[in-house]
Design brief:
heterodimer; A: 301 residues; mainly alpha; MetI-like fold; two-stranded antiparallel ribbon; 13 helices; 79% helix; B: 365 residues; D-Maltodextrin-Binding Protein, domain 2; 10 strands
């Protein structure tokens, strides 16, 4: 049965290592007129340019901020939702979960286009509020939070629904008020779910291109758009690949540090090692998933 | 046994479908701008030649170029603009030379116009002019005059002079989201070479654009047609044909909005869209047959009628709708032709500087 273990390794090699190697090779190439539009070589100019030019740094910082704020909003909205669903009567839980997942039954672009209609100058919300919303940062955040909220709710719910009610009862019996039960029991035990949710929202939100382009204003120069410009407007595949390489480094470092924090917190609360391994495993696979999605977003068009 | 036979047949059918389309398949894959043909032309072509058409559209030259530069795009006829796209594709070796013996209607092309595109394609080896137009201003003259009675409706100053732009801003200014189409016109307006990538020149462009940035309501990719036709904006930096189509839509809607196009007196850029064949096209004969068909006067006249862009087949003049023929914005007079300028090839460092400038302009800081 050795080959069963070999399959995921092969999968990683074909879908993760090989594309990354291709991107790294192109990042070291020199742009040229031709098919494809670069000459292979070993030039660190592109990586250096992306590291030093304020355009990329600013776009990356703005993307990190947008992704961070979106993740925070998703967490603040998603945690209570997950808690409520996990506390609901069992026969309601499936219906509520279905409601969370229902938007996936409709195409992504169609849902974003519906938001354009809702947020437009003559749309519902703009009329109610009397302000211009479409093509602003607010519209962009609405779109991102709307799209990614289920990715926050589901892992937190999965964690909370498996909590042993006896723990909460014991805490209450020992005199802990509800807020204390929440802070000392529920919150620490839900952290692996929170970490998975945060990574699932934060990582794809950094590279998000479509939602800012369709709902955000022209001032929203995010790293996804910069990458698009390098690839399409400048036909500069090496620099586009260099942006992707840096983005990947950031995306691996950020989930990596999340794992560190979780590990530290868990040590503080001394919970079993099996769960810790589960967190590490899920975050590692998230890194892989995000790497693939970046590669796809580079080469898709 | 019947089931096994059926399964084998299904597998064979699957394999046949999976094979790459071969040259003898009678099909041509066309990649064109959106709203840039009379669809009836495609069905008539298939009816006459038996070649079926797979028609796909792009909304930016960048998309077209990226697909062709990646190789094996699968298209047989593509329509790049002469500059900057076609000249770069030629340099990259992405376009095939056209076998004119298979395009007898090549003789219908206007030699003077074909000479103009030789700067992009020496010897006209890689393409024929499909349609051409200019880049200028779309105006809602009634509303502009209401805001500014003596508005210079024939000048770039209306948009590029910040004092005037501020005054017309309340009724809505839209700018096409395209560095390669806007920056040459601004350079020309400033009295500099439209091809310049000199830092001092681009700096001047940047200052001019930044000064009007607060008054721009929207950046439209793929043209500002809809926003103009519905009266959401009253001044647009756009392609001539887009503005004329917007004007027609407003007239059809009878919404009381009158849109007109101006190629400003200081000079406007003209661009040619070319019929070309990718060097790795699988159906070159069918592609040549299509190009030959389109260059027929009666076919090209229908395309001009539908798109409101001028063509390069002089024999169509007797066939296109008179109101288009007499519209100097579609078919400029000879004196107006002198005001127009064309742009030359651009190199990559220049593109990067322009893209940067554009990103800063859009971001507004």
């Amino acid at each position: 049965m050795r080959w069963v273990i070999g399959l995921p390794a092969l999968w990683l090699l074909v879908l993760l290592a090989a594309p990354l190697a291709i991107i790294a090779v192109i990042a070291l190439a020199v742009p040229a007129d031709g098919i494809p539009p670069y000459d292979l070589g070993f030039s660190l100019d592109n990586l250096w340019l992306v590291a030093t030019d304020p355009l990329y740094r600013d776009a990356l910082l703005r993307s990190l901020r947008v992704a961070g704020i979106s993740t925070l909003i998703c967490l603040l909205m998603g945690f209570p939702m997950a808690l409520a669903i996990s506390r609901a009567a069992p026969r309601w839980q499936n219906a509520l979960l279905l409601a969370v997942m229902l938007p996936f039954w409709t195409g992504f672009l169609m849902r974003i286009n519906a938001w354009i209609g809702i947020l437009a100058d003559d749309g519902l919300i703009a009329r109610l509020l009397g302000t211009r919303l479409l093509y602003t940062d607010a519209a962009m955040y609405i779109g991102i939070v709307y799209t990614y909220l289920p990715f926050m709710v589901l892992p937190i719910y999965a964690r909370l629904s498996r909590l042993d009610p006896a723990l909460m009862e014991a805490a209450a019996d020992l005199g802990a008020p509800p807020w204390r039960v929440f802070v000392r029991i529920i919150l620490p035990l839900s952290l692996p779910g929170v970490a998975a949710g945060v990574a699932l929202v934060f990582v794809p939100a950094i590279g998000e291109y479509v939602i800012p382009a369709l709902l955000g204003g022209p001032q929203a120069q995010l790293i996804g758009k910069v990458l698009w410009d390098e690839f399409f407007a400048n036909r500069d595949w090496p620099t586009a690949s260099a942006v992707a390489v840096w983005l990947l480094l950031v995306l691996v470092v950020v989930p990596g540090s999340i794992v560190r924090v979780i590990r530290w917190l868990r040590r503080a609360h001394a919970v079993s090692g099996a769960n810790r391994r589960a967190v590490l495993g899920s975050t590692a696979s998230l890194c892989g998933f995000s790497a693939i999605s970046i590669f796809l977003s580079v080469l898709r068009a | 046994m019947g089931m096994v036979a059926a399964a084998i047949r299904a597998v064979l059918l699957f394999l046949a479908l999976g094979l790459p389309a071969r040259a003898q398949d009678h099909v041509v894959n066309i990649y064109n701008w959106t709203d840039y043909i009379d669809p009836a032309v495609l069905t008539a072509f298939t009816r006459e030649t038996g070649i079926s058409v797979r028609y796909d559209v792009f909304d930016s030259l960048e998309t077209l170029e990226a697909k062709l530069l990646a190789g094996h795009s699968g298209y047989d006829v593509v329509l790049p603009s002469n500059e900057p796209t076609m000249s770069r594709l030629i340099r990259a070796g992405a376009l095939a030379t056209i076998d004119r013996s298979k395009v007898p209607n090549w003789k219908n092309l206007d030699t003077a116009l074909m000479k103009r595109v030789e700067s992009s394609d020496p010897g006209n080896k890689h393409g024929a002019i499909y349609l051409w137009g200019s880049i200028g201003l779309g105006l809602n003259a009634d509303r502009l005059r209401a805001l500014l009675p003596d508005a210079p409706l024939d000048s770039w100053a209306l948009l590029l002079d910040p004092v005037l732009a501020r005054q017309v801003a309340p009724c809505g200014i839209v700018m096409m989201d395209s560095a390669i189409d806007v920056i040459p016109s601004v350079l020309h307006y400033l009295g500099r070479s439209p091809d310049s990538a000199a830092p001092a020149d681009l700096d001047a462009v940047s200052k001019t654009l930044m000064a009007i940035r607060p008054y721009i309501r929207e950046f439209a990719s793929g043209g500002a047609l809809e926003a103009m036709a519905t009266g959401q904006v009253c001044l647009a930096f756009d392609y001539s044909g887009d503005v004329i189509q917007a004007s027609n839509r407003a007239r059809e809607a009878a919404n009381g909005i009158t849109i007109r196009y101006t190629a400003p007196k200081e000079g406007a850029e003209i661009g040619f869209d070319m019929l070309a064949i990718p060097s790795d096209a699988q159906h070159k004969d069918e592609a040549l047959a299509f190009i030959n068909y389109v260059l027929r006067p009666e076919v090209m006249a229908r395309i001009t009628d539908a798109t409101h862009y001028a063509n390069a087949v002089p024999a169509t003049r007797a066939l296109v709708r008179p109101e288009l023929l007499n519209d100097p914005n579609v078919f400029p007079t000879d004196t107006e032709m002198e005001r127009f300028f064309t742009i030359g090839p651009s190199a990559q460092p220049a593109d990067r500087l322009r893209t940067r400038l554009w990103a800063r302009f859009k971001a507004g800081g």
